[in-house]
Amino acid sequence: MGTKQFSESADNTPLSWLVQDAPEYEERIKRAQFVPPTVSIKDVHAAVPRHLFEKSTAKGLFYVGRHVGLSVLFYLFATRIDQLSWNAAAALGWSPSGRAVLSWAFWALYWFWQSVSFAGMWVLGHECGHDALSPYAWVNSVCGMGLHTFMLTPYFAWRLTHRAHHKGTNHLARDETYHPMSRSDFKKLPDAAHATKMDYKELLEETPMFTLFKMVIRQFLGFQLYLIHNRKGNPKYPPWTSHYNPDSKLFKPQDRNAIIISDMAIGSMLLFLAAWSYQTGFHNVWSLYFVPWLWAHNWIVMFTYLQHSDPTVPYYREKSWTFARGALATVDRPVFGWIGSFFWHGISSTHVAHHFFVSIPFYNLPQVTEAIKPVLGEYYCYDSTPTLRALWRSFTQCTFIEDEGDIVFFKNQRGEAVREYVEPVAEEKKAREGDDEAWKLAGF
Fold first, then answer.
1. In sequence order, what E strands does 181-325 have?
2. For 261-290, how does the pLDDT look when each residue is reduced to its tens digit (9 = 90+)?
3. In 3-state terms, the chain is what percent helix, strand and coil (to 5)?
4. What InterPro entries does the entry give (predicted)?
């Protein structure tokens, strides 16, 4: 209800489209009574032409080389910013203050595009983690280790938990990331039958500035905090569960050596950054590496959060979850248009297909998406809501879920959900058939 009021109030402003919900989102809200899908993983698999499963090492390495090359060019531009500012200011006859403004403008330009490129490197490392860059395991491991280590992401550790996420997407007991808060996490909040408007107002409502502060912390630091101590991860693990601990409950005993290798790689990168800072000064390294690295984390958190966190997307408990339902609890979004397609390799615009087929290379996923749309029907979620509006909407409206119920939706700060679960006509057993085979068909 609040969403529509927001949209209508903005209709007369020139940039109203930036703060309006997309028609696809509004259409899902109209289908307020949610009947869980009974889509067959076999039917989805059968709709995809066989040649789209093929991986090309040459093509994968081309994308890696192109991306690294662009980052090098951005870096070279940054090393010449001072000279460029002097020359441009002198040619224009600008004062020292004008030259300083021009220098800041050049740095802002570098930070934006280098952060976009860094996030793209991380995406390609993610591809390697799914063995989707090349048919050769060693190529995926070498490239993935290099790309993720550069971004201070422990390759093997994150690869293992990310694969677990794919095997339990939006399963409340098994999913690894962006685990939603439940009503019981708000200790003083009464149950749904007894909670009043004042209860929600006093315990959940926030000022916009405080919400923005929390959002900034999560966007820029959230991913590293998740790696360090499982922030926003599944609460089934002990406090301070870490991706850097070889004995962590996140991993199996046989994974221990791989985790140690990841840690050694991260340690080497940190030593390189320390040596670079010692030789050239920390301010230099801060400007050239850490600022775009922080902004890249903002982009990474943004598109990974929006892939699964939406008021119209369900969460499942054990009795109702299937692999197909988890894959369909995903939203395709054209995040930042051509930037998302070119630099981030469509990680947001083809994420539904990626969840059904994790090992299909990203450059084939647009065709896969078109092939499976007819099979998925109304359960295919696409949302063209402007990215920043969608991010704010999810952050402010995806507040908590109920502690009970086989299928639940996010509720907002007023305790309202835009959709509700309706008992299906078909038997649950039919929907769950073939889940064991789903892992194989999906590429695990």
1. 315-316
2. 999 999 999 999 999 999 999 999 999 999
3. 60, 5, 35
4. FA_desaturase_dom, Fatty_acid_desaturase
